Amino acid sequence: MTDLPDWLASKLPAAARHPGLAIASLGDAKTFAKGGFVLTSPAFDAGEELDPCFTAKEEDAVAPPLEWTAPPPGSQELIVIVEDATEGSATPPAQWLVWGLAGQRGKLLEGEIPPRAGKNAHGNSEWLLPDPPEGETRHYVFQIFATDLPLTLMPGASREELIASIKGFVTGCNVLYAPFTGTPADEDAFEDEDFD
């Protein structure tokens, strides 16, 4: 994909360069990684495949853990937007919309319920479990934003409402990328169970 500014395109593989990503309109070269602001996960490295335990391929799947460094001085709140950047739609589907995070170094534990969450692409206020068809790879871009004003959005807000409330107030931003390839259903899941 094309149409991404250079400061962002260089941080994502070609398959994840969706021009509709939230960070493409909210961030810029000055705020990207400002002051060393970085988003990571203890569960996967940048570009590493998501573990099935964070996807629809496992029954008890949860959202992956995330960690971030201190945002630029003056930041009041942090926002996480996760989008499926795979080609095919004008706007990348929202996997997770999170805000209400303190403007400081911090983390979300695996499966932790965030302070505030908006509606994902399926209309639910939770982590939308990746569920690509068998053999198809989807490209997930985790985006973090720091703002210099606290958000007044109520839980359940839409992607559009969240983006509109952040625009013009971003002090720092960054991305973390992870693909996931659909696997066949685990037909052997109950083989070890003793039903006799």
Write a brief structural summary.
By secondary structure, the protein is mainly beta. Helices cover 9% and strands 26% of the residues.
Instruction: Tally the helices.
Output: 3
| Strand element count | 8
Q: How many domains, in number, for the residues?
A: 1
- How does the overall form come out from the CA principal axes? globular
The pLDDT mean sits at: 93
How far apart the termini lie comes to 54 Å
Biggest β-sheet, characterized? 5 strands, antiparallel
The Rg value, from CA coordinates, equals 17 Å
Strand content of the residues, in percent?
25-35%
CATH class: Alpha Beta
What do we call the CATH homologous superfamily? PEBP-like
Description:
It is a single chain. The longest helix is centred in the last third of the chain and has 8 residues, at 159-166. The protein is mainly beta and 196 residues long. The chain has one domain (6-91, 114-181): Alpha-Beta Complex (Phosphatidylethanolamine-binding Protein). The protein is built from 3 helices and 8 strands. It has a 5-stranded antiparallel beta sheet with strand order 6-4-3-7-8. A 3-stranded antiparallel beta sheet has the order 1-2-5, with no helix packed on it.
Show the helix and strand layout:
Blueprint: H1 6-9, H2 22-26, E1 39-40, E2 66-68, E3 77-84, E4 94-102, E5 106-108, E6 116-117, E7 137-147, H3 159-166, E8 170-181
Antiparallel strand pairs: 1-2, 2-5, 3-4, 3-7, 4-6, 7-8
Features:
Phosphatidylethanolamine-binding Protein
